[in-house]
Amino acid sequence: MFEVIGERINTSRKLVQAAVADRDADYIIDDVKKQQDAGATYIDVNAGARIGHEEEDMKWLLDTIQPIATVPLTLDSPDPAILEMAFAMVEKTPMINSISLEKERFDAMMPFLDGKDCKVIALCMDDAGMPSSSDDILGRAKTLVAELNKIGIGTANIYVDPLVQPISTDSSKGVMVLDAVRAIKAEFPEVHITGGLSNISYGLPQRHIINRTFVTLMMDAGMDSAIIDPLDSKIMASIRTADMLLGHDQFCMNYLKGTRDGSIVS
Ligand code: THG
User: Which one of 79, 139, 141, 147 has the largest count of C-beta atoms within 10 Å of its C-beta?
Assistant: First the structure.
């Protein structure tokens, strides 16, 4: 079944930033519970937005969230030192978000990940920047999978993020990432595909309809996880329905359950 990584605990969101600054544990606990109830299978935790406070904010968030977390956490930081500290604090095996091919980040992440039992998001980003073609995305994914395999991270524990780019600047950006996902899944049937989706609609009006249509196309190509807001009931209903239509929901059980509990409505 599709894995939903709940994105809401991120200090780039104004209300979360205020709650973290005020050490308002009730706000954070309530938000995490809502994401879990809505079907999040991981909770992403990103404390990067208050410059100079990431370490103490991440520690406080983990101390606050862990006692009520029923699902594992996705530890989200570009800073390997923060990820290492956070990894040592969590009880359930986490997902690390992320490693990339940017040299400094890659070189710092590899010794830390060596031999670890965890899931890893691998961003198709390198020092040249965002990928420029589906072959470029595939090439980066191949390098990341090969390098992670070498240090004992199995392909089934790797979540490739192909990096969705705005369609408003280049109308081929949708097909580019869809083709890349198909090619990555053909090369590595066991690998997972995840990522944020909202970049696709950057610069356009009515972004949610674009995002939730795009996720169903990405699911057909092989995306089996995404970093989204699980409280957006329309995108969740699209994901549940697409999962059923793609044959990932035996006897339509989850779809039927969703229609009965009111989480899926036409
Ligand atoms: N790939 C990976 N990790 C990621 C991303 C990705 N982590 C961060 C991000 N992208 C996904 N997380 C979020 C979290 C919150 C929001 C968007 C993405 C969000 N943004 C509002 C906005 O931009 O309008 C903020 C508004 C507010 O202040 O509340 O909600 O792609 N591997």
Answer: 141
Choose one of 3, 5, 9, 12 to mutate for the ligand 1 pocket test, by most ligand atoms within 8 angstroms of C-beta: 12
Homologous superfamily (CATH) of 93-208 is: Dihydropteroate synthase-like (3.20.20.20)
Give the C-alpha separation, 93 to 72, whole Å. Answer: 7
Task: At 50, give phi and psi (nearest 5°).
Answer: -90, 95
List C-alpha distances in Å: 48 to 2, 14, 44, 179, 231: 27, 13, 12, 32, 22
Q: What are the residue ranges spanned by the domains of the chain? A: 1-78, 93-208
Mean pLDDT score across all residues of the chain = 98
Query: Are 141 and 184 spatial neighbours (Cβ–Cβ below 8 Å)?
Result: yes
pTM: 0.97
Categorize the per-residue pLDDT at 125 as very low, low, confident or very high, splitting at 50, 70 and 90. very high
Instruction: Work out the average pLDDT over 28-36.
Output: 98
CA 251 – ligand 1 centroid, Å: 34
Question: Which atom number of ligand 1 is nearest to the Cα of residue 121?
Answer: 32
